[in-house]
Specification:
alpha+beta; single chain; about 25% strand
Length: about 230
């Protein structure tokens, strides 16, 4: 059976069309495959800890490996399978402010091995740690509170407010030499403060005694004369 020219031409046209379709499908497949532009990274704080988050928005779901570097130091490596909504993986890192990290994405199926352009730069302020308040201790029921005024114990006698002087500390009696001695043999009346008219009063008293005695004498004599 011989192949006519028309048949050969038809087969050639079909071959070209098939090749064109295969090429179009290949380009379309590469367009929907894993791409570095579908990855993004950000540095943030998770409470008191620093975190670097990498998000994969690969709609094809191609498995990829994400590695974060600080210079040549590896901070961490994680596998991720992206989605249209995005899948995020976190790397715990106590990052310093204004520091740039390098993020490498590798996907063998998509022949991808690239860094995220520009990497990720941390904010200017570090994650702050809030001070923990110190709880105020409360006295337990078994431990009584201390009295504001201390009570003296039985072994320590309470000191008297006013000290009582002892016999040795009493006021000494005035020495006998301190009492003034009357001069010139004067009586004790001068010591008690008697008046200087004592002599005059004594003379008057003596005169009265003499007068009284005379009166008694004359009275007795008159009585005897009357009786005779």
């Amino acid at each position: 059976m011989s192949i006519t020219f028309r048949t050969a031409r038809t087969v050639r046209i079909l071959g070209v069309a098939s090749a064109s379709a295969a090429l179009a499908l290949g380009v379309a497949g590469n367009a929907f495959a894993c791409n570095i532009t579908e990855f993004s990274a950000v540095a943030k704080c998770d409470g008191e800890k620093g975190v670097i988050s990498v998000t994969d928005k690969d709609a094809s779901g191609t498995p990829a490996t994400v590695t974060v570097y600080l210079g040549e130091k590896v901070i961490g490596t994680q596998d991720v399978v992206g989605s249209r909504e995005g899948v995020t993986v976190d790397f715990s890192e106590d990052w310093a402010p204004n520091t740039t990290y390098r993020v490498r994405v590798q996907a063998e199926r998509a022949r991808l091995d690239q860094d995220i352009k520009g990497g990720v730069t941390t904010p200017g302020d570090a994650c702050k740690t809030e001070p923990t308040p110190t709880p105020t201790p409360t006295p337990s029921a078994s431990q009584p509170e201390e009295s504001a005024t201390p009570t003296p114990s039985a072994s320590e006698p309470e000191e008297s407010a006013t000290p009582t002087p002892s016999a040795d500390e009493s006021t000494p009696a005035a020495p006998a030499d301190s009492v003034p001695t009357p001069a010139g043999g004067s009586s004790n009346l001068a010591e008690t403060g008697a008046s200087s008219n004592t002599g005059v009063i004594a003379g008057i008293a003596a005169a009265l005694v003499v007068v009284g005695g005379g009166a008694v004498f004359f009275g007795l004599r008159r009585r005897g004369t009357s009786s005779n």
